[in-house]
Specification:
single chain, 716 residues, mainly alpha, 5-stranded mixed β-sheet, two-stranded antiparallel sheet, 7 strands, membrane, Dpy-19/Dpy-19-like, mannosyltransferase activity, glycosyltransferase
Length: 716
């Protein structure tokens, strides 16, 4: 088992085009600049200082996570095989394609090896560029080969430094988004500081470097920053076109680097749909965003050799349905309250029906089943009937796909982030309800205008989008812990924007009958500064202690296994075992696999279930025939799976296999009435007894405290 052990000693404010006029040329101390030239110089100085701080914080974040990674593993000192083992599970699989491209005789041969790959899945030739989102590995490997850096920088460092560099882009994008929303770079500073001090809940890049989300989320943050700017009023046509181009590029890069892009952008499309229905966003800009999402995804589809999972995505079906429904219902935003509500309900039903029909039609035409496991998982997760489906239960039993733990909120509260977030969310939700109701009612009465003005200024289009975005992604995070990183990073932006927003404090002070322009400015700057001081005094010592703590990667059993495979098996040998381990086998040894952790393929899921019969109650003859059908030469058994204690009864891998096979589970506890005792003992336990019925098919060739490797006999 891989462990980490203690290291042994000796080894300014930017002027927004739509900001209220009273905020123009206002210094942080609240004094009004009467000289227009002085005000312009102050704005230039503020933007310059804010930009420098943004870049500095981004670079510091990159250095911070890189240092944590080095201190945690002693990455610079460990062997190459240990470095590769540290890329666990699917991370190792993705990095193996970067390594493969680097080691290829030429770029052309490397690309050919990916397009016609026969080592990732035995007895099959697959197109890696179609099946997986690995264009980033291809691009980096080509860049490494053509740049004159081979003598100075190892390939692995070029790779990890690129990922840590993207963290700088991520933090700068969050900083800019908050700055655009609030009109002051102080908000961006607070957002970046919250992101860093809540690192445990905002990123996991330092220990899952090649994970797809670590590539994708920085581009998603850039896209959100560009959308925030796009939703400002009074943009010049040139500015709007350039911003739309930035949104498209960021959307394309986000889609290209993560296989779950379509689900994230579907939530984003739902946010746009809700806001458009409530007349909180300009319809023309929303339409452009729908088109950008579709075109970005289709371009990725072309690059991935017309990946059917993309064509059958709900996002494309939904966006097309919205555009069709809008064409059918041309007078959607006219009439009184009841008339609008009726049209709105009809519009929602029409979009829903069209989405389901179009999606069903596309999947029927393409015979698409690649994403069925996701819908099975969602159906079981939200209580629409119990399931014995192996794939769905495999997800349900993983902590990462469970509900967000409550201790997450205590950690976020310790930095004051969750309190500030709740405060801003409460105020803007009330404002959204009031403004949305007013828009639907179509009220233009003069007497309501003054009363509602305070709500209107606190819910500009960019703020409205940020509100619905954070609510929807918050719901996703609460239901699925792995997706919390999409929410917590935006939580930093949203909370800091609210604390630094003139409109929010103006609303509160007007409600308390305490409003003055100078008082608003004082609160707007003093609260964030006090918060920053609190964060600095409380968490700076902890960060310094964290940076000074030195540990070392330690996994001798896996290192021994990989070295044995490289030294004692032919290059063409085919290995079977757990998905997680086999990703490391491919990376460290280059041997052929029977299965792997990239689960978005129906045939692979069925193959994995068959391979996992090595941990079920099956006869040695059955297991042998299954393994040989996939060309297996060696099978690796792991004690940590065979005798698993990490999960409770019912969620251990062997339990999932027993239930799927109709067998009673091991141990004390209830079983479903139709489950029957197996006629055979558990394979992974019984094979170790060297009984004749097993040795005729399997010969043990390697073992240590964790792993047992058996060579399969080649019967005629």
């Amino acid at each position: 088992m891989t462990t980490i052990r203690q290291r042994r000693v000796g080894k300014g404010t930017e002027t927004a085009e739509d900001q209220p006029s009273e905020e123009t040329n206002v210094k942080p101390d609240g004094k009004i600049l009467s000289d227009p030239t002085g005000g312009k110089l102050w704005n230039i100085l503020s933007v310059t200082v804010g930009g420098i701080i943004a870049i500095s914080l981004g670079l510091l974040t990159s250095v911070y996570v890189a240092t944590l990674h080095e201190n945690d593993l002693w990455f610079s000192n460990i062997k190459e095989v240990e470095r590769e083992i540290s890329f666990r599970t699917e991370c190792g699989l993705y990095y193996s394609y970067y390594k493969q491209m680097i080691q290829a005789a030429s770029i052309q041969q490397g690309l050919h090896g990916l397009v016609y790959d026969n080592k990732t899945e035995s007895v099959r030739t697959i197109n890696i560029l179609e099946r997986m989102n690995v264009y980033q590995e291809v691009f980096l490997s080509i860049l490494y080969r053509i740049l004159p850096i081979q003598q100075y920088l190892e390939p692995v460092y070029f790779y990890i430094y690129t990922l840590f560099g993207l963290q700088a882009v991520y933090v700068i994008a969050l900083y800019v988004t908050s700055w655009l929303l609030s009109g002051t770079w102080l908000s961006g500073l607070l957002a970046a500081c919250w992101y860093i001090t809540n690192r445990v809940d905002t990123t996991r890049v330092e220990f899952t470097i090649p994970l797809r989300e670590n590539w994708a989320l920085p581009f998603f943050a850039v896209q959100i920053a560009a959308i925030t700017y796009l939703l400002r009023t009074h943009l010049q046509p040139v500015q709007e076109r350039l911003t739309l181009m930035a949104v498209f590029i960021a959307t394309f890069l986000f889609s290209l680097t993560w296989q779950f892009n379509q689900f994230m952008m579907l939530i984003q499309a739902l946010a746009l749909f809700i806001l458009d229905c409530l007349d909180l966003l300009p319809t023309a800009k929303v339409t452009w965003l729908y088109i950008i999402q579709i075109s970005g995804l289709l371009l990725v589809c072309v690059l991935q050799f017309f990946n059917s999972m993309i064509l059958g995505s709900l996002l494309i079906s939904f966006n097309v349905s919205v555009l069709i429904a809008r064409t059918i219902q041309k007078n959607l935003k006219k009439g009184g309250l009841l008339n609008r509500l009726g049209k709105l309900i009809l519009h929602v039903l029409l979009v829903l029906c069209l989405t389901l029909l179009i999606n069903k039609f596309i999947k029927k035409i393409l015979n698409l089943e690649s994403d069925e496991h996701i819908f099975k998982f969602l159906k079981a997760k939200f209580g629409f009937g119990a399931t014995r489906d192996f794939d769905a239960n495999l997800y349900l039993c993983e902590e990462a796909f469970g509900l967000l733990p409550l201790n997450t909120f205590s950690r976020l509260s310790s930095t004051l982030l969750f309190y500030a977030y709740g405060f801003v969310l409460f105020l803007l939700t009330i404002a959204a309800v009031i403004v949305g109701f007013r828009n639907l009612s179509g009220s233009n009465q003069v007497q309501l205008k003054e009363k509602m003005e305070e709500y209107t200024v606190t819910l500009k289009p960019d703020a409205a989008y940020s509100l619905v975005h954070t609510v929807l992604f918050g719901c996703l995070a609460l239901s699925t812990m792995r997706m919390k990183y999409l929410w917590t990073s935006h939580m930093c932006v949203f909370a800091s924007f609210g604390l630094c927003s003139t409109e929010v404090w103006k609303l509160i002070l007007k409600c308390l009958h305490l409003y003055t322009s100078q008082r608003t400015q004082v609160i707007k700057y003093s609260i964030p500064i006090i918060t920053l001081l609190y964060i600095s005094f409380k968490f700076w010592p902890g960060i310094m202690d964290e940076l000074s703590e030195l540990r070392e990667f330690y996994d001798p059993d896996t290192v021994e296994l990989m070295n044995w495979i490289k030294s004692n098996t032919p290059n063409t040998a085919v290995f079977a075992g757990s998905m997680q381990l086999l990703a490391g086998v491919k990376l460290c040894t280059g041997r052929t696999l029977t299965n792997h952790p990239h689960y978005e393929d129906k045939n692979l899921r069925e193959r994995t279930k068959q391979i996992y019969q090595i941990y079920a109650k099956r006869s040695p003859g059955d297991v042998y025939r299954i393994l040989r059908s996939f060309g297996t030469d060696y099978v690796i058994l792991e004690d940590s799976i065979c005798y698993e204690r990490r999960h409770s009864r019912g969620c251990r891998l062997r339990d999932l296999l027993d239930v799927a096979n109709g067998h009673i589970m091991d141990g004390l506890g209830e079983n479903e009435p139709d489950l029957k005792p197996s006629l055979y003992p558990r394979f992974c336990e019984e094979i170790k007894k060297n009984l004749p019925s097993y040795t005729v098919h399997f010969t043990r060739v390697f073992q240590n405290k964790t792993f047992h490797v058996y060579k399969l006999a080649k019967h005629k």
